[in-house]
Specification:
It is a single chain. This protein is an alpha/beta fold and about 500 residues long. It has one domain: Alpha-Beta Barrel (TIM Barrel). Helix content is about 35%, strand content about 20%. The strands form three sheets. Strands 1, 2, 3, 4, 5, 15, 16, 17 and 18 form a nine-stranded mixed β-sheet that branches. A six-stranded parallel β-sheet has the order 9-10-11-12-13-14. A four-stranded parallel β-sheet has the order 6-7-8-19. Strand 7, helix 4 and strand 8 form a beta-alpha-beta unit. The longest helix has about 35 residues. It is globular and about 80 Å long. It starts with a helix and ends with a strand. Bound molecules: zinc ion (ZN). The site of zinc ion has 5 residues, from loops.
């Protein structure tokens, strides 16, 4: 009798407990997955009158399922067939592939008081960047080995709002150790980066042309690129211009310390090994990428010639070289200090022209923040201040604000900021709104202007050090989707940081 009673109780209670557990489990799962995105559905549509696709700008909709684009249809094809589906409509706003920033310093781990993964990737998301490739230096330690890459990956875990990949450092310590480099590349760095002049970071020493040649021969086997900071310091000019030699608060004093000849000398040197990357050359399969070109003169001519002869070579420049000119930089305003330096207005015009005819291939932020105390905003000493422009959240607006004066198109911006960077970083499912690709998308209003002041929501750790602060910019980012997750919409981020760390296979 007792046993029967027990059985009855169990048979009633068990299903209730099971149902309760299931309900609890389902809801907690739902909460964690929806924390990644500000839209609930896994299957939905994004519509707009201006969608930038590889086949031109269309008015229509993008169908997204499970983080990928599964169809793209024009207006007349999709109205009526999607009743009941969720549609995120952006009206007249431009819908483009998310930006891929191949050059950013997030300084994590070790210097996350300079930036860090959470604030850096929040700023990126608010600026329409869906993927960024983090530089191996300015974190502590620098990323120069399998062990230091592991530290990066751990630091990024559950702390990134967009996808993040990593470049590894090519430094004298590993350049002649092919096994170390191969292991490093096998561990997942998307390529290597080296400096031809002092980097300003103690554990990231400069390389010479022999190191670079060695690096290329290893990279060839993996078909990955070497990114090079191309300036050669002919002599330590910063030290030779002392306080008596020029007013250290004048930008022109700093500009004299890094003349175009420094870029020219480095590129001349580099082109003696870039020929190894040609078809049939000893390093066929490797690729050389010159980061942040500033000199639109002889340096650019040299690069054009090398490309024409078949070297596997690309070059990037940054919005700050296209937005500012040396003549305009205010007295003591060290927010504008970077290396290579911002040159004159004529050079800026030439850079834009080079970009438009594809002599310069792509854009990157070179977001390189530091502590405000190192930027010496109060002291105004251009020779002593930290060199680096803080810009991550504003690169799309800055590119458009300056670029529309030069007649640039949305397709060109897409090619400079998404298509070509995706190729450089080996990300074949990114960089274009195309069926089968990840749904990495930005929606923005080119016509909307905003004043970048203290009231503007900025997500970088130290907004005051940005050279764009105080400017009026055109192009407001409305929403950013990463792998189908709506990670940012008009001042709001998704609660959870669900970006993916990208490791090369
Ligand atoms: Zn940099």
């Amino acid at each position: 009798m007792e046993l029967q009673k027990k059985n009855v109780i169990i048979s009633i209670l068990l299903p209730i407990i099971a149902a309760f557990l299931l309900f609890f489990l389902k809801n907690s799962l739902k909460a964690s997955s929806s924390g990644c995105s500000l839209v609930d559905n896994n299957h939905y549509w994004i519509s707009s009158k201006r969608i930038v696709t590889p086949n031109g700008i269309i008015s229509g909709a993008i169908e997204i399922n499970d983080g990928k684009v599964i169809s793209i249809v024009k207006d007349e094809q999709w109205r009526g067939i999607t009743k009941g589906d969720q549609i995120v409509d952006f009206g007249e706003a431009v819908v483009m592939p998310g930006l891929i920033d191949v050059h950013a310093h997030l300084d994590d781990p070790g210097r996350d008081d300079w930036e860090g993964f959470p604030s850096g990737t929040k700023a990126a998301a608010a600026g329409g960047i869906t993927t960024l490739i983090d530089m191996p230096l300015n974190s502590e330690p620098s990323t120069v080995s399998v062990q230091t890459l592991d530290l990066k990956i751990k630091a990024a875990k559950n702390r990134i709002y967009v996808d993040v990949g990593f470049w590894g450092g090519l430094v004298p310590e590993n350049a002649f150790n092919a096994t170390a480099l191969e292991n490093f590349l096998r561990a997942g760095v998307l390529g290597l980066k080296s400096f031809m002049c002092p980097s300003g970071i103690n554990d990231f020493p400069m390389t010479n042309i022999s190191h670079i040649k060695e690096g290329l021969s290893v990279l060839a086997k993996f078909k990955r690129p070497l990114l090079v900071h191309a300036e050669v310091q002919e002599k330590l000019v910063e030290d030779s211009v002392d306080n008596n030699d020029g007013d250290v608060k004048l930008y022109s004093t700093y500009l004299k310390t890094r003349p175009p000849s420094m870029e020219q000398a480095a590129i001349t040197d580099l082109l003696t090994v870039s020929e190894d990357t040609r078809v049939g050359g000893p390093s066929e399969g490797a690729h050389l990428h010159v980061v942040h070109l500033s000199d639109a003169g002889i340096s650019l001519d040299l690069l054009k010639k090398a490309k024409a002869r078949g070297d596997s070579l690309t070059v990037e420049t940054c919005p700050h070289y296209l937005s500012f000119s040396a003549e305009e930089i205010p007295y003591g305003d060290t927010r504008f200090k970077c290396a290579p330096p911002i040159r004159d207005g004529e050079n800026k015009d030439k850079l834009w022209e080079a970009l438009k005819v594809n002599d310069v291939d792509m854009l990157s932020s070179d977001h390189s923040p530091s502590l405000p105390s190192l930027k010496l905003l109060e002291q105004g000493n251009f020779l002593k201040a930290w060199g680096g422009i803080s810009s991550l959240q504003y690169v799309l607006s800055a590119t458009w604000t300056s670029g529309r004066e030069y007649g640039v198109t949305f397709e060109q911006i897409t090619s400079w900021w998404s298509e070509r960077p995706a190729k450089l970083a080996g990300q074949h499912l990114k960089g274009a709104i195309a069926v089968g690709n990840y749904a990495d998308i930005v929606a923005w209003e080119p016509e909307t202007e905003f004043h970048l002041d203290d009231n503007h929501p900025s997500y970088a750790k130290h907004p005051s050090i940005s050279a764009y602060m105080g400017r009026k910019l055109s192009g407001k980012v409305l929403a950013t989707f990463v792998r189908g997750n709506l990670v940012y919409r008009e001042g709001k981020h998704a609660p959870a940081a669900c970006g993916t760390t990208i490791l090369a296979q």
